[in-house]
Every structure is written in C-alpha cells, then in structure tokens.
Design goal:
By secondary structure, this protein is mainly α. The chain has helices at 18-43, 49-62, 69-87, 93-97, 101-104, 114-120.
Length: 123
C-alpha cells in the first residue's frame, strides 16, 4: 500500500452563508456514510456497517444546534481531517474504537473522583 499524504486533502475554506455551510455539512456526512463499508473492512471491525453509520449520525447530531457559522466551519474541518486520517489508515484500531466504547463495554464508566479511580487501578 503506497502512502499518499495528499490523498483526500482539501484546502481549508470558510462558508459564505448558511446555505453553503449546510451543503458542505451534508457533503461531508455523505462521504462518511459511503466510506463506512471501507472503514469496516480496513480496520477489521467486529460490528456491522449499520453500527458505524449510526455512530457517524450520532456524532453529526451532537453538533446539530450550533448557531455560529465559524464554529460550523471548524467542525467541518475537524470532520474532514478525521476522515482523511481514517481512510489513509493513519489511525490505529484503538483510535477508532474510542467512538464505540459505550457500545463495546456497557459497564465502562468514569470514576466518581480521582481517589476512587486511583484505588481501582485506573490511570
């Protein structure tokens, strides 16, 4: 596999108005959905493609009510950089599974405070 750092590279740009921002968000969202089968295959994930697509939707829905167009532009940029790193296989499996931690381990929880985490042996 040849490494091509410019594969999927885009120039950073700002949205002109809300219509442009919406178009760019939908474009990015569709890229993620179309790449889900490839991501599952590349990283040999033990979950169906539908679970990956559901997680992508949850991540986009989390930022649904952002009202500042410059924040939307930053989120689009971050999403695209994550997309590029994922499809270029610059991430390891653990980086990808951090999004699915709750689905993988339903008993996973953060400690209530530092001392209880320390006594449990968590870092």
């Amino acid at each position: 596999m040849t490494i091509n750092p410019t594969y999927l590279a885009q120039r950073t740009r700002s949205s002109v108005n809300w219509t442009d921002a919406k178009r760019r968000v939908l474009h990015t969202y569709r890229h993620w959905l179309r790449a889900s089968p490839e991501i599952q295959q590349m990283y040999s994930l033990n979950m169906p493609v539908s679970a990956i697509r559901t997680k992508v939707r949850q991540e986009f829905e989390r930022h649904r009510y952002v009202n500042d167009i410059s924040v939307v532009d930053v989120l689009i940029f971050k999403s695209h950089s994550e997309f590029q790193e994922t499809l270029n296989y610059w991430k390891q499996l653990s980086h990808l599974l951090k999004y699915f931690r709750a689905e993988e381990d339903p008993t996973a929880r953060l400690p209530q405070n530092f001392m209880s985490g320390f006594l449990e042996g968590r870092n």
